[in-house]
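Hi support team,

I'm opening this ticket because the web form for multi-chain structure prediction keeps timing out on my end. I have pasted the exact lines I submitted so you can reproduce it. The total is 714 residues across two entries, so I didn't expect it to be a heavy job. Is there a limit I'm missing, or should I split the entries? Thanks in advance, R.K.
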Amino acid sequence: MNDFITVYSGDLMRRIKSRPFLVGLILGTLAIVGLFKLPTILAPTIVSQGTRLVIVADAPLAAQARPLLARTLTVKGVVPAGTAVNRALLQRFDADCAISISEVKSGIHVTIFAKNPTSVPSGRVRAALLPLQVQHATHLSSAQIAAALGANIEVRSLSSKFQSVDQAQAAQGLAMTLVVFLYILVIVNSQFVMSAVAEEKTSRIAELLIASVDPMVLLAAKVLVGATLSVLQLLVWVAIGIALGSGGGTAGAGAGAAASASMNPFSLTGLLGNTLSPEVIAAFGVFFILGFLQISTVFAGVASLINRTEDLGSISGPMVIPTIAGYFIGFLAINAPTLPLVTVTSFIPLLSPFVMFARMAVSHVPLWQIGTSVALNVLALWGFTWFAGKLYRVGMMLYGRPPKFAQVWEILRSPS
Amino acid sequence: MLSVEHIQKSFGSVQALRDVSFSVGAGSVFGLLGPNGSGKTTTMRTILNILRPDAGAVSWNGKPIDRTVRRRFGYLPEERGLYGKMAVREQIVYFGRLHGLHEPEAAKRADAWIERLEIGAYALRPAAELSKGNQQKVQIACAALHDPELLILDEPFSGLDPVNADILLAILLDLKAKGTTLVLSSHQMWQLEQLCTAFCVINAGETRASGTLAELRSAWPTRTVRVAPDSPVLRGAAEKLGATIAGSENGDLDLNVPATSDFAAMLRSFAAADSIVKFEVVEPSLHDIYLRAIGAAA
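Hello R.K., no limit was hit. The queue was backed up. Here is the completed structure from your submission:
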């Protein structure tokens, strides 16, 4: 145990002070800040893009159209029909487009003149002016039109997990965010463990270490240092996220700002809402630990076979494939948690940390399935540790040409 | 006492050790000799339990080498390696801790070693900034900081300039005086002859000769007798005694005779045959013994 503590603490301090870890932490932090702050900064610009308009119509028609358009767009002004529409007109009203409305036999005719046609919200204009079109086509009163078009659509959830569509959508968004986090943490820190092992081997310090400490202790310490650093990173990012999330509410002067943040489709604060349940947090923790330990243990074992750090890329490439597959199936699981592919892969080690977590975040998964998945992952971890331990014990002392598959097989079969 | 008994080790189809046996007395300095690829490093790694033998056994004071025993050993591998970015002092302390020293004690000893190895100027600098020789000094400190009972050094003199080689030699003699058992390999025969009390010659994974220099010499079947002057009369007398002429140089005549020869009687015969000015029985050198043991011409 003393050996483990010495190696673990020494390695941890070395890694915490290392440039790759600090750079990763800073970049991750900047990404978190960006994720929280950029939407607030960019949203007004994005939302208002192409939506400031000038109405070109006769006064009665303009009077009818203005309130309808103003519900979803910004009306900057009204000019009489026949006014020349050009860039100067748009510039005068600080508008993105001009909407010319005229009466025709079948209702109304609308022409949109825009600086940038790709940013024209034609769908929103069509929806906004629909009552006016119907009114002019049928000559019914505006009250009758409103009554006829005002069909109430209500969505009632039959899911026992979510009571509303908003809640289900928020959970999906949260699950996506967490699956991305899971992937980044696992992949980045497993590569970290891999390069640490390769560095010790290629710098020839491994022999000195193995002469002093049991190779399995070294391997375990290395993998757990990786896990600790991942958790540390995560805690820093979560703390920053919480600080930014709560700060956003107060900085925005009270409940109104908080409410508007939750309404903002780009706001992560709004996305998280109340969907981050203890169950989801626990699932994230358990599947992160299981996924990380499995992948980084295999990475460490395989890294012990290489003789040059330049070979890390070529050897890690194929090993990353299951992780990427798990990541994509995890995303699939968020949208279709009951697909047979999703259900099956949520039991397969290396894939299941992503897939089972995603299933749990968006649906009710039977307890026996969760238990089986965790048990299979623990069993796989035991197998991967045996496999990596075998490779590591011999691989760290193996120099010269990279071993062929037959040699690796010999190593796995040998007593040491 | 270190006891290595008939150890064997294979890596796939390559049999690195076929049958290696020797014993090293406590407090002695033992030289492991052999050509490149003969199995010296594998033997050392097996002693340290880095590699487990396929057959045979290694013991220290009668006990197998487990983690507790191994912690009392020190090792300087042939391939040097340090954490390049870690400061020298921090590195020495770390390895001291890996051998069971508490941090304050490890730090105290590290300072003493840094002073002794004359690397104080580099103590707080990253190891990568040091010259090869100075890095080797750091590694020696890492290997010996915990006052090991057994210190194994694989080619400790390689890469050292004469001044640093002398510093290392002094350190090893000091460790020997303190009672540390030393096992070392080197291709520098004169250094081994100066340091070691016993030897083992390994070739092709097998022990070819083992023992003290006196024992190895006593097992040598012939001796060289050097006589002068190199005269036809003396050559005739030598042939009569059954000696074979090994060579002639600077007026001396070298004769090969069985090790069991009666040298006093031989001296009397030569003196009676000619006016000899030199009669010397030359013992075989470690170099001769080594070459003969590995099957090369001595």
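A quick check on our side: Chain A is about 70% helix and 5% strand. Let us know if the file doesn't open in your viewer.
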